[in-house]
User: Which sequence fits this backbone?
């Protein structure tokens, strides 16, 4: 059995055990019918605690006793932690906004069958739903970050489920001059 397959199997086992025993994850009764990804064991109706916000488009979540790094599908925020690159314009703001919204929260995940489950760095690719008083299913955080100008729509290889909505959110943010699209937001930076 390959190392990647062993890792996936281990994650599945840990996730199933964690989903059955974890008191940390909150599940809302009004969430959509559970859809469990058989490769990851992640349920679209389960809420998973955020352990750490890495930057504007990457987080760590708890699944049972393990930590899973999640890369948000369709969103690219300016770099702040890549050791090969300098901190990019509006990267700190995007990272700070993600930390403000997600730190100490639980999130819901949705994978996309049009995309790989994991990227080349081993990060789970998913849409992230943040808690919201106005919507018990949560707010699509990927789209929120784009609509507020903290990042831009990003298509890695093939179109994805919410591509049309994310492109429209970027267009609106650009036209409204929000965030990194604001006049002078990145003046003097390359």
Assistant:
């Amino acid at each position: 059995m390959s190392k990647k397959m062993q890792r996936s199997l281990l994650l599945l086992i840990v996730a199933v055990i964690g989903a059955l025993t974890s008191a940390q994850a909150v599940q809302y009764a009004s969430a959509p019918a559970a859809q469990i990804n058989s490769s990851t064991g992640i349920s679209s109706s389960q809420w998973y605690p955020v352990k750490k916000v890495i930057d504007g488009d990457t987080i760590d979540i708890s699944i049972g006793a393990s930590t899973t790094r999640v890369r948000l599908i369709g969103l690219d925020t300016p770099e702040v932690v890549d050791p090969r690159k300098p901190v990019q314009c509006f990267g700190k703001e995007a990272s700070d906004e993600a930390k403000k919204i997600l730190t100490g929260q639980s999130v819901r995940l949705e994978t996309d069958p049009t995309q790989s489950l994991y990227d080349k760095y081993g990060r789970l690719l998913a849409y992230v739903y943040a808690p919201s008083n106005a919507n018990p299913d949560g707010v699509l955080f990927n789209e929120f970050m784009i609509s507020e100008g903290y990042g831009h729509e990003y298509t890695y290889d093939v179109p994805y489920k919410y591509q049309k909505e994310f492109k429209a959110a970027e267009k609106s943010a650009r036209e409204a001059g929000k965030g990194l699209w604001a006049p002078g937001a990145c003046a003097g930076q390359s």
User: Anything to note?
Assistant: Strands lie at 47-55, 58-63, 66-72, 75-76, 106-110, 124-130, 139-140, 152-153.
